């Protein structure tokens, strides 16, 4: 847990964002307290607090005085928007660059995308 | 119960020299101490309210420094101040400061001829912030029979009593000097969990010296590394971790991403190379690493500590 190259508080924030995106943490749901977080993952409470403070600033979490931290309304929507905006730049652009290096033509990529879209449509219709 | 703000501390150019001398141990043996230097110009600030890790190799000066903070000894030269922010004073023969400082040494500091319960009562009477409930719960958790004398307990159980005293005291400055010695792994982890939980509920300053760096590094907000009587670094643990990173991948790709950086450590397994490097990668370099299929990893505090205090490495 939390073995990546980024500071631990950044990794904690990433984990909570991922849980909100995946719907594991629902809007208005209470998240673990700093103390619970610190003892569960055996980390310094200040590290957990730093992660939570960042998420409050981003609007992913909000604080209810005396009660604790909760997932903000529309947090998932906001994160989805944010990730969608970065998808092209951070995920697709490097993939296309790689295709260039490998000599895969734009037509081939487009054909694959259209095929993949077709397949995805099918599976979502079936399920 | 009195509520006292967490204590911070400052050392300014502190030197501690030991004279040659003789000491009589409680068991009657006479030891000769060679003259030596414990600290050699140590300058350091401990931030109030943090859990600070004190790391150093054997004989680096950790215990000497911690003893100064607890006023168990005085510096040969330089100044030591301890206390809440803005009200720090020399701790030597200063009841106001020492009543807020608890040093737990590896011996546990117990009354050897009395039951453990008697030692605990002694601490309870001395410390206004003592939590009898915590002490009782921890002894239960660590499975220590308080009716026994310390000499009838194993090393690990004596350490557990020390840990109990340190936590139950709730002193504004609590110092654990290698308190884990002899504890088995489940007991150590139980101690870490209790320390975090109690610290979160009762904020105070906790100094923890340990050789088991991997086990405790995540407990630390700040880290102090002492080497040969000097303070090598004192900074937030996150900053220490960002002093280096590792790259894993094929030799050529790793070399390319590494650029001209100095490798602290290099390991090769077939075509795969892992190097530990100083510094950090910028965003462009991270993207380059990702493209080249090179995995970027964190360097554990443990590894940085080993590199930083390696006598073969040229000190800067």
Q: Could you characterize the architecture of this molecule?
A:
The complex is a heterodimer of chains A (127) and B (316). By secondary structure, chain A is mainly alpha-helical. Chain A has five helices and two strands. Chain A has two domains: 8-73, Arc Repressor Mutant, subunit A, CATH 1.10.10.10; 76-126. Helices cover 67% and strands 6% of the residues of chain A. Helices cover 31% and strands 31% of the residues of chain B. In chain B, the strands form four sheets. A six-stranded mixed sheet of chain B has the order 7-8-9-5-10-11, with helices on both faces. In chain B, strands 13-14-12-15 form a four-stranded antiparallel sheet. In chain B, a hairpin with a 2-residue loop joins β10 (222-227) and β11. In chain B, α4 (132-141) packs antiparallel against α5 (155-169). The interface between A and B is medium-sized, with 22 and 26 residues.
């Amino acid at each position: 847990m939390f073995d990546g190259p980024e500071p631990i508080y950044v990794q904690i924030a990433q984990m909570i964002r991922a849980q909100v995106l995946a719907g594991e943490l629902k809007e208005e749901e209470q998240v673990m307290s700093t103390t619970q977080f610190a003892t569960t993952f055996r980390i310094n409470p200040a590290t957990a607090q730093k992660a939570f403070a960042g998420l409050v600033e981003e609007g992913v979490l909000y604080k209810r005085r005396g009660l604790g931290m909760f997932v903000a309304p529309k947090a998932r929507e906001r994160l989805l928007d944010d990730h969608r905006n970065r998808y092209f730049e951070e995920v697709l652009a490097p993939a296309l660059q790689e295709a260039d290096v490998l000599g895969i033509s734009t037509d081939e990529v487009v054909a694959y995308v259209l095929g993949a879209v077709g397949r995805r449509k099918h599976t979502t219709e079936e399920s | 119960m009195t509520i006292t703000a967490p204590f911070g501390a400052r050392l300014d150019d502190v030197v501690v020299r030991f004279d040659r001398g003789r000491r009589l141990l409680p068991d009657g043996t006479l030891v000769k101490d060679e003259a030596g230097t414990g600290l050699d110009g140590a300058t350091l600030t401990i931030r109030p309210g943090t859990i600070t890790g004190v790391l150093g190799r054997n004989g680096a000066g950790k215990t000497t420094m911690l003893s100064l903070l607890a006023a168990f000894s005085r510096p040969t030269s330089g100044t030591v101040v301890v206390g809440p922010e803005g009200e720090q004073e020399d701790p030597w023969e200063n009841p106001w400061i020492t009543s807020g400082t608890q040093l737990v040494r590896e011996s546990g500091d117990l009354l050897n001829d009395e039951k453990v319960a008697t030692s605990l009562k002694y601490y309870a009477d001395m410390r206004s912030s003592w939590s009898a409930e915590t002490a009782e719960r921890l002894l239960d958790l660590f499975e220590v029979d308080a009716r026994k004398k310390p000499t009838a307990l194993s090393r690990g159980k004596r350490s557990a009593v020390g840990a109990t005293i340190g936590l139950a005291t709730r002193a504004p400055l609590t110092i654990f000097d290698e308190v884990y010695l002899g504890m088995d792994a489940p007991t150590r982890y139980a101690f870490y969990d209790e320390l975090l939980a109690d610290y979160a509920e009762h904020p105070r300053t906790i100094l923890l010296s340990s050789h088991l760096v991997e086990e405790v590094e995540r407990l630390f907000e700040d880290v102090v590394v002492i080497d040969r009587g000097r303070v090598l670094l004192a900074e937030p643990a996150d900053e220490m971790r960002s002093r280096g990173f590792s790259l894993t991948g094929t030799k050529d790709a790793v070399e390319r991403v590494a650029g001209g950086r100095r490798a602290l450590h290099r390991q090769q397994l077939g075509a795969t190379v892992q190097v530990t490097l100083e510094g950090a990668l910028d965003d462009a370099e991270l993207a380059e690493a990702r493209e080249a299929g090179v995995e970027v990893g964190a360097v554990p505090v443990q590894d940085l500590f080993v590199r930083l205090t390696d006598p073969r490495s040229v000190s800067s």
